[in-house]
Write a structure and sequence with these properties.
7 helices; 5-stranded antiparallel beta sheet; alpha+beta; about 350 residues
Length: about 350
C-alpha cells in the first residue's frame, strides 16, 4: 500500500509586536517612573550601555537616575525624551518620534500641576469701631466794634508839570521870563525822541528758532513716514540639508533674521560654544525648550554655525538662544517643527 507524500509543515508567522506602553493614567511622579520602567521592560530590558548606543546624549548614569533603585523624585524632561526614544528604537518601533509627544505632554502636565499656586485665603475684614463723638468747639465771641475815626480832610493833589514845560512852569511860578541859553543844556526844553519799531535781535532770533523747529518737525515726520520698521518673521524654504551631527537629512529649513557673530551652543544652555553665525539671515531646522537665557524665555533654535571651533564640535551643529534670533515672537509661528531628537 502506497503512503501519500507528507506535506511540508509551514512555520507559523511570528506574532505582531505589542504596542509600547504609554504614560497615560500616571497622576504623580512615582507613577510616571513606573511607566518608564514598563517601557524599559517592553524593549527587552537591555543593558544600559546598549540602550544608550541607540540615542545621542544618553548615558548609563542618566538611565539609572530614571529607572534605577533610587530614581529622581522628578525625572528631567530632556533625559525622559532621550530614554523613551532609546527604548522605542531598541524595541524595534517603526516610528519612535510619533510616540514622543505623548510622553512630553504628560510630563509637562505633571510639572504644571505641581507648580500650580495654592488658593489664597482672604482673612475676614476687621469690624470697625463706632466713631467717638467729638464735642463741638464753642462759638467765638464777637469783638466790640471799633470807634469810628474822625474824618480827615481830603488833601488836594496838584499834578506835576509835564517834562517838556518844566522851565516855563518854574518861570510862571516865579513871575519872571526864562531865556534859553543855546549852550546850556539845563535850560533847554526836554524833547522826547520818537522811536519807530524795528525788529531787533530777540525778535529775529525767536522767529528763526520757530522756523527751524518747524522745518525739523516736518522733515522728521517725513522721514519717519517714509521709512517704517519692517516686520521681521521667519520664512520656510524648500530643500534638503544634511546633518552630520544626527546623520540625517532635513527636508526644508526656516530662514530667520539673526544677530551676526551670535554664538551657537552644544546644548540648550549657555555652556559649550561650538561656533558662531556669520550670515544674516540664518538657516534653522527646528526649535526646542531649554535653560532660560538673557532673552527672558527658554526657547532655542537648532542650526549649524557658519564657523566652527574644530571638526569634533558636532560639525558646528548646535542651538542658538532666541534672544539672538530677531523675530517678533518666540517660537516664531512659521517654525512649526519642534526638535524631537532631544
Amino acid at each position: 500500500m502506497t503512503r501519500p507524500p507528507e506535506s511540508p509543515l509551514t512555520p507559523p508567522s511570528p506574532p505582531p509586536p505589542s504596542p509600547p506602553p504609554g504614560p497615560e493614567g500616571a497622576s504623580s511622579w512615582p507613577e510616571f517612573t513606573a511607566r518608564l520602567r514598563e517601557l524599559y521592560e517592553w524593549a527587552g530590558t537591555p543593558k544600559y550601555r546598549a540602550l544608550c548606543s541607540r540615542v545621542t546624549g544618553l548615558s548609563p548614569a542618566a538611565v539609572s537616575t530614571l529607572i534605577g533603585k533610587n530614581p529622581l523624585s522628578q525625572p528631567p524632561e530632556t533625559g525622559t525624551r532621550r530614554f523613551v526614544f532609546g527604548c522605542l528604537t531598541y524595541g524595534g518601533h517603526p516610528d519612535p518620534e510619533s510616540e514622543l509627544p505623548r510622553w512630553t505632554d504628560h510630563w509637562r502636565h505633571l510639572a504644571d500641576a505641581q507648580q500650580a499656586p495654592e488658593p489664597e485665603i482672604t482673612p475676614p475684614a476687621p469690624v470697625a469701631a463706632p466713631p467717638t463723638p467729638v464735642a463741638a468747639p464753642p462759638a467765638p465771641v464777637a469783638a466790640p466794634p471799633a470807634p469810628a475815626a474822625a474824618a480827615a480832610p481830603e488833601a488836594v493833589l496838584t499834578p506835576p508839570p509835564p517834562l517838556e514845560a518844566v522851565p516855563e512852569a518854574i518861570a510862571a511860578q516865579n513871575g519872571s521870563p526864562v531865556r534859553h541859553d543855546p549852550l546850556d543844556r539845563s535850560t533847554q526844553p526836554v524833547r522826547r525822541r520818537r522811536r519807530s519799531w524795528r525788529p531787533g535781535r530777540t525778535e529775529v532770533g525767536l522767529a528763526s528758532s520757530v522756523l527751524t523747529a518747524t522745518v525739523m518737525a516736518i522733515v522728521g515726520f517725513t522721514i519717519q513716514e517714509s521709512s517704517p520698521d519692517p516686520t521681521k518673521n521667519c520664512v520656510y524654504v524648500r530643500g534638503t540639508i544634511p546633518d552630520s551631527n544626527l546623520n540625517i537629512s532635513w527636508s526644508g529649513f526656516y530662514q530667520c533674521p539673526n544677530r551676526v557673530s551670535a554664538a551657537v551652543y552644544q546644548e540648550r544652555s549657555l555652556n559649550v560654544v561650538v561656533g558662531y553665525a556669520e550670515t544674516d539671515p540664518g538657516r534653522f531646522m527646528c526649535w526646542a525648550r531649554g535653560r532660560q537665557h538673557w532673552g527672558g524665555n527658554d526657547i532655542w533654535y537648532y542650526t549649524k554655525a557658519d564657523k566652527g571651533h574644530k571638526p569634533s564640535d558636532k560639525g558646528g551643529w548646535g542651538f542658538m538662544p532666541a534672544s539672538d534670533v530677531q523675530t517678533e515672537e518666540h517660537p516664531d509661528p512659521t517654525v512649526a517643527r519642534q526638535c524631537h531628537f532631544i
